[in-house]
Design goal:
By secondary structure, the protein is an alpha/beta fold. The protein folds into three domains: 127 residues, no CATH class; 253 residues, 3-Layer(aba) Sandwich (Rossmann fold); 179 residues, no CATH class. The protein has 21 helices and 24 strands. The strands form five sheets. It has an eleven-stranded mixed sheet with strand order 11-10-24-23-22-12-21-20-13-19-14. Strands 1-2-7-6-5-9 form a six-stranded antiparallel β-barrel. Helix 8 packs across helix 13 and helix 15 runs parallel beside helix 17. The protein is elongated. It starts with a helix and ends in a 9-residue tail after the last helix.
Length: 630
Amino acid sequence: MIDLQINKTSEITQKNSIFRIGKVFSVDGLEIKIKVDKEKNSSHLLYKGELLKNISVGGYLKIAKGFTSIVAKVNGEYIKEEKYYNNEYNKEENKINRILIVQLLGYIENGQFEKGIKELPLIDNHCFLLDKAEFILVHKFIKNGEDTPIEIGTLAYERSQIIEVGINSLFASHIGIFGNTGSGKSYTLAQIYRQLFLKFKDSVNFKKNAKFVLIDFNGEYNQGKTIIPNKSVYNLNTRKKEGENKIPLSEKDLLDIELISIMASATDKTQKPFLDKVINQYKKISKKDNRESYFKKILKNKVVDVFSMTDKVKAHLLVDYLKAILLKEKTFEERLTDDIDWCDKENRGFFIKPISDNKYLKNNESNIIETDLYGAIDTYSFSDNFITNFIDIAYVILIQEVFNSRAQNEHIAPAISKLQIFQTDFDKVISTNKDDKSLFSESNFVVLNFDNVNIKIRKMLPLLVSHKIYKEHKEQNKKGDKSLNIIIDEAHNILSHSSQRESETWKDYRLETFEEIIKEGRKFGVFLTIASQRPSDISSTIISQLHNYFVHRLVNERDIEAMGKSISFLDKVSHEALPILPTGACVFTGIAAQIPAIIQINKIPKENEPDNKTINLVENWIDKNDDFDF
């Protein structure tokens, strides 16, 4: 028994002598400096027949303070010469002292690594390399029994060390994935969500309580088996006469004064109040049992009003608006107004042409109801296109306002004209049919592909869908048992704070919507994942509210600076490694990671990869039968 104890003590002493690398030399606030023992300046150490990598920049060590083991990472080093040195009795290399500058990460207690600073080291505290068990402990991001793990990769410079993260700590958070084109950010996005779905593929409650929407601007995730095979894909298209898929939205979702005002580029003082009246009238008409009959009655009253006008310019203008409502996109057929004319002298207004041209009929109601314009109202029907119906009601309100001299046409008409720009495009990508299935009716994972839509819809629709599903989720998640993850790839398309292609009003509304989701969404079970090439373009409020970061290679100085400002727990070595990270490697840091770690993301089966591979030019340029000497 005594021999065993002696052997164990001897082994510990031997291990400590080999693993000891120096002692604390300076404690200046949180800046700790360590003087390395002179015999520990070699690149490797030998222990039990194995070569151990000696301490260097980017490596980890522990500082022994009593019974506490403080874990630190080396951020830098420099050398310092001895002031008093005797060449006669010492080797020349012993003249140099090697000083390490380290950053405190946490401490080991009760067999667990805890992130954070519990206490600071003291001068002359001994410092040691981490052994294999301690190294694994520091990179074990899940405490036993506290979370469900998924494997996402390995340490980039220590491939034997697997990196697992907890599902709760990662997916119940806002995630940022950043990196230049070709650095692997889309691959990372696909991998982490693929691992999640593989873990819960047989769970009924997962399919019932968890919803995922991926907004895809480049068509990278719409392939049959990308990420997972059983997903719903909406391939939206404004470049064809008929869209491939349409997103189901209700009229209630679209009747938002801010949204309509932005679409119409409405001025605050005149056009926005007018559009608010149109929205109220739309809602009023929609509540009627027979809304078409109700609207036809309004139209007939407006025809009677217009025919009684004495201002020729206004009267003809309002007749044109009535024709626009009744004829839609068709050419204004003159037959609708062939039986009316204007008389400046006698009636000072419209007169009705009888079958015989020998006399004029008075523009009283009994004669007006016999006109073609009045009669055409009976054939009117509402469109399936929300914008078309909204414009029709807007024209009616405009007719009423101009007739009563409460508005000038030139102030209001431009707003309606701008709405008409969205008319055709909306019909291609949005359906307000009440019989349509919901977005999540076929799968709890939905991909919205915006690769083939124009710039206006690309900016408007993701905002509209995100706002809708966020509001609906808040209302439906009273018990707190449901979650919604909104995933936005190439997020700078809609989260940029520096875009010059839009008005400040639109930019403010867009950013405020997503900032609300990222600030308030967590308590309602709504989480945002954003991936982008240009983090510096994205609102700093959104970047700063993220909980977990996967940062791939970034070479632009502004992007690197944005990461440094936003991620308070990003150490100096990881920050400086960003421009030189290899493809597929990233700095992973956040609440799901004990410490910042450079990891290599695991490979995905080829059929599940996103469709974003760089083309092989040589392969496309030569024929296999060509005789080239490379």
